[in-house]
Amino acid sequence: MENLSFNKENRAYEKAAKRVKDLKGFYGNLTSYCLVIPFLLILNLLTSPEHLWFYWPMLGWGLGIILHAVGTFGIGKNWEEKKIRELMEEEMKNTKSL
Asked: Which pLDDT score, from 0 to 100, does residue 13 have?
């Protein structure tokens, strides 16, 4: 019984550690974006104000950040795991009530 408890705690710890790593990666990406894009804007305006190119990296990287956010906060593996757990619990309740 102790081994089962230890395995559950270990899996919970690993999931939490992965979640923290995912969050850290997302916020690092977002921070880099917020620092680099204004630099590119200033660089663009100082070197060639007649041709605005800074919005291309802004849009491309911004799309990457949106996809990263969806993977981190939105529909992803966490959603799948929660849904599987929910369906399993529902099935267990149904079999107990029979």
From this structure: 87
Residue with tokens 């921070």: 31
CA-based nearest residue to 44, from 59, 56, 54, 32: 54
Go through 6-41 and write b for each residue having 16 or more CB atoms within 10 A of its CB, e for each that does not: eeeeeeeeeeeeeeeebeeebeebeeebeeebeebe
Q: Are 44 and 54 in contact (CB under 8 A)?
A: yes
The larger pLDDT score, comparing residue 2 to residue 85, is at 85
Residue 98 has what DSSP assignment?
-
Q: In which element (H, E) is residue 79 found?
A: helix 77-97
Q: Which tokens belong to 50?
A: 């007649």
Distance in angstroms (rounded) separating the CA atoms of residues 77 and 88: 16
pLDDT digits (tens, 9 = 90+) for 23-61: 999 999 999 999 999 999 999 999 999 999 999 999 999
